[in-house]
Amino acid sequence: MPTIDEVDTMRDARDVDGLIRALADPDEFVRSQAALSLGTLADPRAKEPLERVKSEDPSASVREAAATAYKWVVGRLREIEAAR
Q: Taking phi first (over 0 means left), then psi (-120 to 50 degrees means alpha), and beta for anything else, what does residue 25 get?
């Protein structure tokens, strides 16, 4: 179970897989931070896990963080597509 600081370290290291695993952490603050970190990185691998968390997480704050992060990821993917 990562701490908030470890989530920040994963974000800085662009450890998308670690952040996706952190979405299942028992601590809702860790899950929220992981979701927002994934949104900041806007990696396509984060789209499906964020979509699941934004509708299924028991915590409203985590669902909200995942929904925000999901919008960031989708928006970035649209930008990439438009640039092609």
A: beta
Please say whether the beta carbons of 52 and 67 come within 8 A: no
How many angstroms separate the CA atoms of 62 and 57, rounded? 7
Type of residue numbered 75: G
* 47-59: average pLDDT: 98
Alpha-carbon gap, residue 66 to 53, rounded angstroms:
6
Where do the structural domains in the chain lie, given as residue ranges? 4-83
Mean pLDDT for the chain overall: 96
Q: Which CATH number fits domain 4-83: 1.10.510.10, 1.25.10.10, 3.30.200.20, 3.10.290.10?
A: 1.25.10.10
How many other C-beta atoms lie within 10 A of the C-beta of residue 10?
A: 23
